[in-house]
Amino acid sequence: MTTEKTSPAWATWATIFLAGPVIWYLHFWLVYLLAEAGCSAGGFQVLGLPAVSVFTVVATIVAVAAIAVFTVIGRRRISKAQDDGTQQPMLLAGYLLGVCFIIATLFVGVPASFISPC
After folding, report:
1. Which residue range is the domain that position 24 belongs to?
2. Per-residue pLDDT tens for 36-61?
3. What's the pTM?
C-alpha cells in the first residue's frame, strides 16, 4: 500500500502563478471604486493634491511591490529547479505572468500622477 503525499511544490507554483493576476485585479477594483467614491464626494486634498491621486499612486506602489515579490520568488524557484535538472513550466508561466501584471498595474496607476481623476 502506498501513501500519497501532497507536494508543497503544487501550492508554491499555484501561488506564484495566481499572485500577479489576483493582486492586479484587487488593485484595479480598489482604485476604480475609490476614484468613483472620491469624485462623487467632491474630492479631498492631501498635501495640495487630490486624495484620489495620492491613494492611487500609493496603492500602485504597494501592488507592484507585492507582485514583484512573488515574481522574484518564482524566478528563484526556476533557477533552483534548473540546478536540480527538473523543469517547472508553471513556475515559468507564473514568472512571466508576474512581469506582465507589473506592467498592467503600472498602466492602471501611473496615469493618476498626470491626469486629474475627476
Report:
1. 12-38+49-110
2. 888 887 767 777 777 888 889 999 99
3. 0.81
